[in-house]
Structure formats: structure tokens, C-alpha cells
Amino acid sequence: MPYTTTKEMLDKAKKNNYAVCAFNAENLEMVQAIVWGAEEMEAPVIIQTTPSTVKYADCAYFHAIVRTAAENSHIPIALHLDHGIDFNLVCMAIKSGYSSVMIDGSQKSFDENINITQKAVEIGKFVNIPVEAELGKVGGKEDDLESSGDVYTNPCDAVEFIKRTGIDSLAIAIGTAHGLYKIQPKLDLDRLSEIKKVVDIPLVLHGATGLSDQTIIECVKRGINKINFATELRQTYTNAVREKLNSDESIIDVKIYSGYARECVKKLVKEKIKLSGSAGMA
After folding, report:
1. Identified catalytic residue from 58, 82, 111, 200
2. Full residue range of the structural domain in which residue 33 is found
3. Closest to 203 measured CA to CA, from 47, 14, 24, 50
4. Closest to 4 measured CA to CA, from 84, 100, 89, 81
């Protein structure tokens, strides 16, 4: 069955030097756009929800939508909790049927991050659900989580963190930020290469919205195996709705403007999958 965990798809990506795209979804149409785009590209895909998204419509709703999409698809599809800063939310996502979770203790001290991550990994291993964690601080704003982004991931700390927690994948801070960039970021790609040399689990890049195509390609080349896209999808969906409504004031059918937005997001999904190198890897 295509509904799967992120463990197998990310291990395969690591072995074959490409990245799996992880797209944040906010509603049914965005889930459909992500899945249909990935199907056309024959690519594995990860659908993510943030804490604010599951506060708007809880984990059970999104699990039902994504599980239904997966059961009617032929590609590997995972449902991932993005930025689970609350251990209880991680447990809720697992209980609701999510196939992957992130515990985000990056705002805490190194030892506190390890402690909360160990708790998440313990329950994850008990039910065979892979756990992602973050070390260092990715800048910008993600839901209610905000960081200055001035603390990059230290390669030696990454080795110790992985050893002590047993996580399945690691989100690293190399200069990206959540949200929209005011200026083009300058990433520490050499730091990414150094981390790649000393760790043996898949690496995750947060804050990919706004990065140039060449930067994304280079990040994958240097060892990134999962790339998160969130803000750009929201922006594309919202702009499409505005465009459609402004084009005809008589439109009152939600399906008309939502369907148009869905097609625009699907086009974006296909573009990002091509950049990640995961096209044809389903």
C-alpha cells in the first residue's frame, strides 16, 4: 500500500543521492494537488501539517484525507507532523495515524533538546514511526515558533545528538529561514558538506521557499535528502484564489476558485520535485 513511513523513502533517497519533497498542506485541495503532482512525476512524496494547521482541523481529519489519497494512488505517500514542539502533539499525531513525526526542541538548550527528542524517539520506535529532529536554529517564523537564525548546526554536535537520541533524520541549520526572504540568503554549503561527512542519517532542509533553483540542486548534491516547502504553496494557493475571484465577480462556487488554485499548486509541486531529483523514484 502506498501509505508509508518516511523511513524507507528517505533511506532510499540517501542511498541514491536525491531528495524527497515534503509539502505542507492546509486543506483537501492542497493534498490533492500534492498527490496528483507527485503521481505525474512518478515521485515519492511527504505531506506535512504544522501545529497551527492541526489546530485548525485536527490530525484525524488530515490523516483521513491523506490516507484516502494514498489508497487511491500508486506512489509512496507519507503523512508527517512538521515542527511538533509539544510532545503531546507528537503523541496525538501518532495516535491519529500519522506515519512520521518531527519533534522540534531546537529552541531549547542542547541537553534539553536531546531529552525531549529521546522521549519522542522512544515512543516512535515502539510503534515503528520514524522521528525527525532539528539541531541549530532555522531562522524566520513557523507558526508561533520564531528564531533569529543565528545559530548554525555544529557537525560535532550533530554526531553526538544523533548518537544520544537515535533519530531517523536531522533538520540542520545552514542559513535558511522559514517564511519569505527579504533578501536572498547566503547558505553555508560547506557546513552542509561537513555535516554530511560525519553523520549517517538523512539530512533535512527547512525554509526552502525562495531559494534559487541552483541552490536547491546544490543542497541535494551535497547531501540533503528531504526538502520542506510550505510558504510558497500557501502563497501560490492564495494568489490563485484572488486571481480567479477578481476575474469574475459572479463566481460563488467554491469549487471553481479552489479547483483553479489546486491546479496552480500542482504545477508548483511538479517543479520542486524536478529540482529535488526525485522524479521517477516512486
Report:
1. 82
2. 6-276
3. 14
4. 100
Does any domain span residue 281?
Answer: no
- 3-state DSSP call for residue 182? coil
Residue 282 lies in a domain: no
Number of domains in the chain: 1
CA-wise closest residue to 186 among 206, 209, 215: 215
Could you give the maximum distance between any two Cα atoms of the chain, in Å?
60
Residue 1 lies in a domain: no
Tens digits of per-residue pLDDT, 13-31? 999 999 999 999 999 999 9
**pLDDT, tens digit, for every residue of 148-180?**
445 899 999 999 999 999 999 999 999 887 555
Local structure of 238: helix, strand or coil: helix
Task: Note if 253 is an active site residue.
Answer: no
Could you give the CA distance from residue 278 to residue 25 in angstroms, rounded to a whole number?
A: 19
Query: Whose grid coordinates read 538548550?
Result: 109
Q: Is residue 48 part of a domain?
A: yes
Q: How many CB atoms lie within 10 A of CB 243?
A: 13
CATH code, domain with 19: 3.20.20.70
pLDDT for 179: 53
> What does R_g of the chain's alpha carbons equal in angstroms?
18
Beta strands 177-178 and 145-147 are unpaired
